[in-house]
């Protein structure tokens, strides 16, 4: 697991108050981890802050799962 | 009771009668207040009356480029924002059959679209800090309608509906969104009414007098305070009983 994935998982676990083992690559924030649409916005804000990147709205809409977030951030930060 | 110490507020239309009183009242309750409006001289007068160091942020709300710079400017000047008062408003009265497209568009742009842009802009900071107060100044006209003010009534009803939708969305983040709907408030405009007009208006107001801007401002202080934390999506009617709804 990359360092980025660990940092993303930490944010997701803290923000959504879920067990770390539930945050798998395919885990959907909304369907599997109990997020609502506002949580999703806040997660994106938290990612932006953690990684000092700007995630445009159309990219943010594509980030539905933990894996989506990690692969986006690996490219953006990488 | 309604302590706003440490809170940071942005008031639009702070050069006008009601906006000026709201800014003064928020400041008197302890808030730091940034003043926005179109007339810099009038804003400076407001700041002088307040007697504290108030950032003055001129903004033409019909220009969306300027609108989108206002919240970042206020956040920078005050170190963040806890309270947004969308008070600025304008009228371009005409009966429906004579109303020009521009008269419709201009009023909707300033009274409704600018309020949408500013509300959207403050959300990020308010969500992060888990505290926010958005107060939209509507009008009894938005609730009751008024001949010759189709555009104004639509904009003032619009901010009530818009605020309710937003109130749903952000209530869980400790952000409240409320409206104040003033009735007839004594102002430079009502000073110009002749005796007959004045009598006609007063006949519709159970309180038998015009309201004061300070009476509207007091409601803003309440809605901005911690005491009003469980009040959201509400419209506070301040109209001397003219419309009991």
The overall pLDDT of chain B, averaged over residues, is 96
Number of domains of chain A: 1
Strand order of the largest sheet of chain B: 3-2-1-4-5-6-7
The total of helices of chain A stands at: 4
Give me the secondary-structure category of chain A: mainly alpha
Beta-strand fraction estimate of chain B = 5-15%
Number of domains of chain B: 1
What are the low-pLDDT stretches of chain A, counting only 5+ consecutive residues below 50?
A: none
Summarize the main sheet of chain A.
none
Number of helices of chain B: 9
- Which series of helices and strands of chain B comes N to C? EHEHEHEHEHHEHHHE
The beta-strand count of chain B equals 7
Shape of chain B: globular
Under the CATH scheme, the architecture of chain A is Orthogonal Bundle
Distance between the termini of chain B: 27 Å
Could you describe the largest sheet of chain B, including whether it forms a barrel? 7 strands, parallel
Radius of gyration of chain A: 11 Å
Record field, number of beta strands of chain A: 0
Unreliable stretches covering 5 or more consecutive residues of chain B: none
Q: Distance between the terminal alpha carbons of chain A, to the nearest Å? A: 15 Å
Q: Portion of residues in helices of chain B?
A: 40-55%
Catalytic activity (chain B): a (3R)-hydroxyacyl-[ACP] + NADP(+) = a 3-oxoacyl-[ACP] + NADPH + H(+)
Subunit structure (chain B): Homotetramer.
GO molecular function (chain B): 3-oxoacyl-[acyl-carrier-protein] reductase (NADPH) activity; NAD binding
Organism (chain B): Devosia geojensis
């Amino acid at each position: 697991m990359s360092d980025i994935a660990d940092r993303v998982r930490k944010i997701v676990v803290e923000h959504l108050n879920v067990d770390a083992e539930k945050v798998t690559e395919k885990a959907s924030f909304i369907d599997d981890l109990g997020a609502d649409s506002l949580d999703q916005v806040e997660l994106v804000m938290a990612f932006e802050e953690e990684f000092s990147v700007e995630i445009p709205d159309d990219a943010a809409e594509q980030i539905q799962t933990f894996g989506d977030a990690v692969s986006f951030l690996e490219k953006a930060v990488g | 009771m309604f302590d706003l110490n440490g809170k940071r507020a942005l008031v639009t239309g702070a050069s006008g009668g009601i906006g000026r009183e709201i800014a003064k009242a928020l400041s008197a309750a302890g808030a730091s207040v940034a003043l926005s409006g179109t007339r810099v001289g009038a804003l400076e007068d407001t700041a002088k009356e307040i007697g504290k160091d108030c950032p003055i942020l001129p903004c033409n709300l019909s220009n969306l480029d300027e609108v989108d710079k206002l919240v970042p400017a206020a956040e920078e000047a005050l170190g963040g924002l806890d309270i947004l008062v969308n008070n600025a408003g304008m009228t371009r009265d005409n009966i429906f059959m004579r109303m020009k497209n521009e008269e419709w568009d201009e009023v909707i742009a300033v009274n409704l679209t600018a309020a949408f842009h500013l509300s959207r802009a403050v959300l990020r900071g308010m969500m992060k800090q888990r505290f926010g107060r958005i107060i939209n100044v509507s009008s009894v006209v938005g609730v009751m309608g008024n001949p010759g003010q189709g555009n104004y009534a639509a904009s003032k009803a619009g901010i009530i509906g818009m605020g309710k939708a937003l109130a749903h969305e952000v209530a869980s983040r400790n952000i409240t969104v409320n409206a104040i709907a003033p009735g007839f408030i004594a102002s430079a405009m009502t000073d110009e009414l002749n005796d007959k007009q004045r009598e006609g208006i007063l006949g519709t107001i159970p309180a038998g007098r015009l309201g004061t801007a300070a009476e509207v401002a007091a409601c803003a202080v309440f809605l901005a305070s911690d005491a009003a934390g469980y009040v959201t999506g509400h419209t506070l009617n301040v109209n001397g009983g003219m419309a009991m709804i």
